[in-house]
Design brief:
The chain is mostly helical and about 280 residues long. The protein is built from 15 helices and no strands.
Length: about 280
């Protein structure tokens, strides 16, 4: 009988210990989440780690590692955040949200091959995921895999025809492949739909500059300057064109306007020397 009571008491203690541990785990996680809401990230980081040590086999630890990774990312602890997201993915390997978070960190750290693998895994799970498609296309662009990048941009445009990032990506692809007419046509449509977008006007002017259509490029730059007179880059582009045309006086005037708009004289020194 005594032996039975001892066994019963041990079992009761074990159950009580599990219950206390679960209660403590939940309380710590709740406190950690409160700290996150208050933007007290250092305290949240500490509490998430504490909860993971208390109950390393808890089914919720996949999400806990993910939350820890996000906190570490916000604290600037990139390598630690990657480790936390990796631990989360060991538990939740098909979580596209965690894959995208880790891929973004890889991309930020210029670990393009690692980011590429994560984006591929997301696309395998969600073939029309816009974020994964756009960033994988960016990686393809860096690798000069233009055909593959075009496929990803086309998938995004097929889902969202007005996606500006994908449309501009297609313009850059056309430009890199020397398809200037196609690039100009795409930009014409974008400018028609966004007439006040100075960046689009500058992009078209740059394309016309590459084609040596200098007067056409100047028309876009003049319009851009009217819309955004404080943009120094516009005047630098104008000055470069005038130099190509051997209009040194006009070039100097354009560079002087760039200086007035905030460009440093050191940045324009060589150009100003060419105007002599």
């Amino acid at each position: 009988m005594k032996r039975f009571l001892v066994i019963l008491w041990c079992a009761f203690c074990a159950i009580g210990s599990v219950c206390l541990r679960a209660q403590s785990y939940n309380e710590i996680v709740e406190k950690a989440m409160d700290f996150v809401k208050k933007d007290s990230l250092v305290q949240a980081d500490s509490l998430f780690r504490k909860a993971l040590k208390i109950d390393p086999n808890n089914a919720r630890n996949g999400l806990l590692f993910s939350n820890l990774g996000t906190v570490q990312k916000r604290l600037g602890k990139r390598d630690e955040a990657v480790e936390s997201y990796t631990m989360a993915l060991n538990i939740l390997p098909y979580s596209t949200a965690i894959l995208l978070n880790r891929a973004a960190l890889y991309l930020d750290g210029n670990r393009l091959d690692d980011a590429y693998l994560d984006y591929c895994n997301v696309i395998d799970l969600l073939p029309e995921n816009v974020e994964a498609r756009l960033f994988r296309a960016y990686i393809y662009m860096q690798r000069r895999q233009y055909q593959e990048a075009r496929i990803d941009y086309n998938v995004v445009i097929g889902k969202d025809a007005g996606n500006m990032t994908a449309q501009l990506g297609m313009v850059m692809l056309d430009q890199r492949e020397g398809r200037y007419i196609s690039a100009i046509d795409r930009l014409n449509l974008l400018i028609q739909n966004n007439p006040g977008d100075v960046s689009l006007l500058k992009m078209r002017a740059n394309l016309e500059y590459e084609r040596e259509h200098f007067d056409v490029a100047l028309l876009d730059l003049e319009k851009a300057a009217r819309l955004q007179p404080g943009d120094a880059e516009i005047y630098v582009m104008q000055g470069d064109i005038y130099l190509k045309q051997q209009h040194k006086g006009k070039a100097r005037s354009a560079f002087e306007r760039a200086l007035q708009a905030g460009m440093s004289r050191a940045e324009l020194h060589e150009r100003l020397e060419e105007c002599r």
